[in-house]
């Protein structure tokens, strides 16, 4: 009888724990085809995204959860003038990182360098991109890619797939804004659950075990 009571209490505890954990995220009906991954939806004009960048959130998560891939998906809606062109630069950067077995958590990767340049431009130098010529200069100076090389890349299936994911990211960013973290392409963590780095690590670790 005693053991039955203990078992019952244990089951209640497990159910309560699962219920509490379930409040930390939502399940996306039509997410990304991205298993074993963490995606951060971000805008270089978002101060909270900038703080995560300075803190090195993705890099710290990578050290604790090395078996996941890490990606930054830019939200083009946050930059109505040049969102499309910047998405194209991030797509190229992501493709280059993949070729070199790097991802957005790699501080020497192309995605990280591009994000860093834009964050510094906006928050440190207090400057805005004025025209498409500046976009070309960013591509050349940060990514070492010419306009012609970029245009050729954008015709590839790889580029089209990456850009399609970026476009879909706009939809999910409208739920909680930026930054938004999505695990395994389908579990979107609620902002109120991001109370600390330890809590984020715990949630990502648990969600990454799910298909």
From TrEMBL:
<dbReference type="InterPro" id="IPR001853">
    <property type="entry name" value="DSBA-like_thioredoxin_dom"/>
</dbReference>
<protein>
    <submittedName>
        <fullName>Protein disulfide oxidoreductase</fullName>
    </submittedName>
</protein>
<dbReference type="InterPro" id="IPR036249">
    <property type="entry name" value="Thioredoxin-like_sf"/>
</dbReference>
<dbReference type="InterPro" id="IPR050824">
    <property type="entry name" value="Thiol_disulfide_DsbA"/>
</dbReference>
<dbReference type="Pfam" id="PF01323">
    <property type="entry name" value="DSBA"/>
</dbReference>
<feature type="signal peptide">
    <location>
        <begin position="1"/>
        <end position="22"/>
    </location>
</feature>
<feature type="domain" description="DSBA-like thioredoxin">
    <location>
        <begin position="41"/>
        <end position="188"/>
    </location>
</feature>
<keyword id="KW-0732">Signal</keyword>
<dbReference type="GO" id="GO:0016491">
    <property type="term" value="F:oxidoreductase activity"/>
</dbReference>
């Amino acid at each position: 009888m005693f053991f039955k009571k203990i078992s019952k209490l244990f089951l209640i505890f497990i159910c309560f724990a699962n219920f509490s954990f379930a409040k930390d995220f939502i399940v996306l009906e039509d997410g990304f085809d991205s298993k074993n991954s963490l995606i951060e939806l971000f805008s270089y004009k978002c101060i909270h995204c900038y703080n995560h960048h300075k803190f090195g959130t993705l890099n710290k998560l990578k050290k604790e959860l090395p078996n996941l891939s890490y990606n930054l998906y830019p939200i083009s809606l946050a930059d109505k003038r040049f969102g499309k062109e910047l998405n194209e630069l991030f797509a190229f950067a992501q493709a280059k990182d993949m070729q070199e077995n790097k991802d957005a958590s790699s501080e020497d990767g192309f995605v990280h360098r591009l994000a860093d340049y834009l964050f510094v431009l906006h928050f440190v130098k207090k400057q805005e991109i004025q025209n498409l010529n500046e976009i070309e200069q960013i591509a050349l100076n940060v990514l070492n890619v010419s306009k012609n090389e970029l245009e050729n890349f954008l015709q590839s299936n790889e580029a089209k797939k990456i850009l399609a994911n970026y476009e879909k990211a706009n939809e999910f960013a409208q739920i909680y804004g930026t930054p938004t973290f999505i695990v395994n392409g389908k579990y979107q963590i609620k902002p109120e659950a991001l109370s600390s780095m330890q809590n984020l690590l715990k949630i990502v670790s648990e969600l990454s075990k799910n298909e």
